[in-house]
């Protein structure tokens, strides 16, 4: 079904808004499908999105979201997966560096940062989906969102050094578990989500560091090389994903 670019963009924004509002995925797709049919028929008669929804996109999205119930079951499924996945990144990174010691402050702080970042992401996605903003403003907001967890982690490190709390240290067996368990989590998430993201990202983040640590290079050189390789790999992967998604979108518009 071929609809205009504006209509396709509106549907994608609506999907993002409803998903960020904690609505059921199946119900979202049903609403998107019905609205796509209406838009297709309306465009054949020379009408546009505003003619169909009868209000601004933001008002329409808020109305639809208010009419739908929050998917508590879905949230209880997604949030633990996200938190466990985030913990796995930290655990694997620490295992590679041999820094398997965690204070009570860290064990409380990490979940708080994850949940706060999740809430911040949801709020930002809803705002971006329901408002027309410039690309510069959009990238700035995403930059702030992306840097917020980093700032909080740095603050947590300094607070942990200032307030000494009991710590748990993992031994040799713990290190083995700390390597195997995150890998199993990443594979499990990849199978569940049917994407390679949860496997590719750890490889990009940790594999260069793992290899460089086993070379005779000085520490400053290792940091420089790693600082170049990781961003380049991230950009390359992002471009590949964008190209794949663009091809999918092109096929949809041609149907």
Description of the molecule:
The protein is an all-alpha fold and 255 residues long. It has a domain at 5-70. Helices cover 81% and strands 2% of the residues. The chain has a two-stranded antiparallel sheet. The chain is elongated. The model has no long low-confidence stretch (mean pLDDT 83).
Summarize the SSE layout with pairings.
Elements: H1 5-20, H2 25-44, H3 49-53, H4 57-67, H5 72-97, E1 101-103, H6 104-130, H7 135-162, E2 167-169, H8 172-193, H9 197-212, H10 219-254
Antiparallel strand pairs: 1-2
What labels describe this entry?
transmembrane helix, two-stranded antiparallel ribbon, HAAS transmembrane region domain-containing protein, 255 residues, mainly alpha
DSSP helix fraction: over 70%
Distance between the termini: 5 Å
Query: SSE order in H/E notation?
Result: HHHHHEHHEHHH
Beta-strand content estimate = under 5%
In total, the number of strands is 2
Low-confidence stretches: none
Q: What structural class do you assign from the helix and strand content?
A: mainly alpha
Number of helices: 10
| Sheet with most strands: strand arrangement | 1-2
- Shape, principal axes of CA atoms: elongated
Organism: Robertmurraya kyonggiensis
Protein name: HAAS transmembrane region domain-containing protein
Keywords: Membrane, Transmembrane, Transmembrane helix
Pfam families: HAAS_TM (PF08006)
Structure described in brief:
By secondary structure, the chain is mainly alpha-helical. The protein contains 10 helices and 2 strands, in the order αααααβααβααα.
């Amino acid at each position: 079904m071929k609809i205009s670019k504006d209509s396709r963009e509106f549907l994608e924004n609506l999907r993002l808004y409803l998903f960020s509002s904690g609505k059921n995925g199946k119900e979202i797709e049903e609403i998107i499908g019905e609205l796509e049919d209406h838009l297709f028929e309306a465009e054949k008669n020379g009408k546009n999105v505003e003619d169909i929804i009868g209000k601004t996109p933001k008002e329409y999205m808020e109305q639809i979201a208010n009419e739908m119930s929050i998917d508590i079951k879905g949230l209880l499924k997604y949030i633990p997966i996200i938190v466990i996945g985030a913990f796995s990144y930290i655990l694997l990174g620490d295992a590679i560096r041999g820094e398997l010691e965690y204070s009570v402050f860290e064990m409380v702080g990490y979940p708080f940062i994850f949940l706060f970042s999740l809430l911040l992401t949801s709020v930002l996605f809803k705002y971006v989906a329901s408002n027309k903003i410039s690309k510069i403003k959009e990238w700035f907001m995403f930059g702030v969102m992306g840097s917020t967890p980093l700032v909080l982690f740095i603050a947590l490190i300094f607070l942990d050094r200032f307030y000494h709390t009991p710590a748990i240290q993992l031994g040799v067996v713990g290190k083995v578990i700390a390597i195997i368990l995150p890998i199993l989590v990443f594979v499990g998430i990849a199978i569940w989500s049917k994407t390679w993201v949860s496997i590719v990202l750890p490889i990009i983040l940790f594999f260069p560091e793992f290899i460089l640590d086993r070379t005779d290079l000085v520490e400053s050189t290792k940091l420089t090389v790693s600082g170049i390789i990781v961003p380049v790999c991230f950009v390359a992967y992002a471009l590949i994903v964008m190209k794949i998604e663009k091809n999918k979108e092109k096929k949809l518009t041609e149907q």
